[in-house]
């Protein structure tokens, strides 16, 4: 995950104070350098003072001139990231959709009027396919005369998820 996606995860409260240290390390890897970026990146992830880490992070952001994304943009950043991972094959389609459902929906739904993540972010089909995976797991205890196997059904869902991820990226990609 890159610096931009890590910041989005922080905004959506998916990253702890120790994660702020990871963000500083990634910032340095990507060429973002400042005194407090170096200080924060050097903190011990096992033994640190949360107040200091938070303070170093705030100073790092100021020194780098970075504006954190708002909740809406942070959600879009993470959705695009996981969709890209699905399309590129960096993550199994079901896992990518689970990340979207958990990392975005669980932290953003309270900010939106829509009742579920599918309505709020044009992800209705993605979430529907995600639930279909569970249905396949429940239905296929054995093949019992079905025309396709459980593995074939799961492969179809993977293909559908990749197709949906490509559609989403074509519609919303801004990289």
Could you outline the blueprint of secondary structure elements for this entry?
Layout: H1 3-11, H2 17-29, H3 35-41, H4 50-64, H5 71-88, H6 93-108, H7 117-121, H8 124-139, H9 150-172
Helix pairs in contact: 1-2, 1-5, 2-3, 2-4, 3-4, 5-6, 5-9, 6-8, 8-9
What report would you give on this structure?
Helix 5 (71-88) runs antiparallel to helix 6 (93-108) and helix 8 (124-139) runs antiparallel to helix 9. By secondary structure, the chain is an all-alpha fold. It contains nine helices and no strands. The model has no long low-confidence stretch (mean pLDDT 89).
| Low-pLDDT stretches | none
Q: In the residues, how many domains can be counted? A: 2
User: Percent helix among the residues?
Assistant: 55-70%
Shape: elongated
Total helix count? 9
- Give the radius of gyration: 19 Å
Count of strand segments:
0
The major beta sheet can be summarized as: none
Written as H for each helix and E for each strand, in order along the chain, the element string is HHHHHHHHH
Q: Could you report the average pLDDT, rounded to the nearest whole number?
A: 89
The CA-CA distance between the termini, in Å, is 15 Å
SS-based class: mainly alpha
> What portion of the residues fall into strands of 2 or more residues?
under 5%
